[in-house]
Amino acid sequence: MEYNEIISQVVEFLGTFAFAISGIRHAAAKHFDWFGGYVCGIAVAIGGGTIRDVMLGVTPFWMTNPFYIICTAMALVLVIVFNKKLETFNNTWMVFDTLGLALFTIAGIQKSLMVGQPYWVAIIMGCITGAAGGVIRDVLLNNEPVIFRREIYAMAAVAGGVAYWAADLLGAPVEITVPVSFFVTCFIRFLAVRYHISLPKLRDN
Known about the structure:
Blueprint: H1 3-29, H2 34-56, H3 67-81, H4 83-87, H5 92-114, H6 119-140, H7 154-169, H8 174-194
């Protein structure tokens, strides 16, 4: 297995865990039962990556390795056991959601590049990988999808993808491009939430 592929799998595993916790925490806020929480966790954890892989014409990643299903179950157990402690942290769901967004954006970019797609496609696939799972989660929870709200979400993934591309153009190795993309995505997302930064709204008149 090539080094870049190993890095990609590690990033995807971490993203799965972070997104699963985020989905389960959202389900807990709606007082879903354990099974409902698992469904929300698995939807957000594999939803974006599944759409990406179908569009790229490859077997969805979770169908080749049961770890992603197991990882979501581990996240469920973690939330059940440490629920009270997790509640002591403000905006815990947002933190895990942002980490998952950044990690899955990177995973989507790397997967697309590995199958020979150009960078502009890879950035779009990275955004879909990072953001689409959250859309599926919000639909299941009967919430307005986060990418349609005023806060910056998908655009943070796009910025992280552009940062990955720029770092690669400058000749940086994967050990640099991955942290740079991760930092840019998280920084923009946290900054937007902290200071209520948003894109201009469309007007109907």
